[in-house]
Amino acid sequence: MDVRLADSGLNPAAELAAFSAAHGAAGGIVSFLGQVRAEGGVEALELRHFAPLTLPGMTALAEQAQERWSLAGLLIIHRVGVVRPAEPIVLVAAAARHRRDAFAAVDFAMDHLKSDSWFWKREKIAGEWRWIEPRVQDHVDRERWRGE
Amino acid sequence: MARLLFLGRLEDIAGAAEMHLPLPAPTPLAEVIARLPDDLAAAVSAPRIRLAVNGVLCVFPEPIIAVADELAFLPPVSGG
After folding, report:
1. Domain extent at residue A121
2. pTM for this entry
């Protein structure tokens, strides 16, 4: 299990190559890469976190995923700081003997990262920073996993 | 000196990400909040604001704040 915050560049290709090499015996690897949408005149996104809670919360989330599905490995890397359009924000990858475990674990981790993790996001449009409010859809997505 | 941290949009209302508040003695949270400017006091008292004292989420509503505690006011998160 490898869970990290990255305060500067995140290189998804290099991270995935290393993850694949570390889990060569797994039957499959599923990954999700989230990046800043290049739309709506957004010049930059800033991700703030609260160190005492953010990484421990992500680690607890990864542990839940590992208990729930049969995984050989799980990687979660989340950017903090200022990120530009088209740059990566989050990379989640799961290695498993069977693909469904890997797909489900990545989907689960993403839904919880979006709704439960201690990140606050603001975006810069036309030179002005504006905080982004929570999205109802993110909570709906997370609720899918309850009681399953 | 207690250290108050304002996360997310609370930073804009506070005008700074952190503030230092001299506390002569352990003080109930409500009294600490009452010493903040009105708009900030209202914002940190909103129902969905969580509080962490010294990095630990507060589960009981009315903690007593020690003179050197760090208080972080955490608004709803806005997605990873």
Report:
1. 2-143
2. 0.92
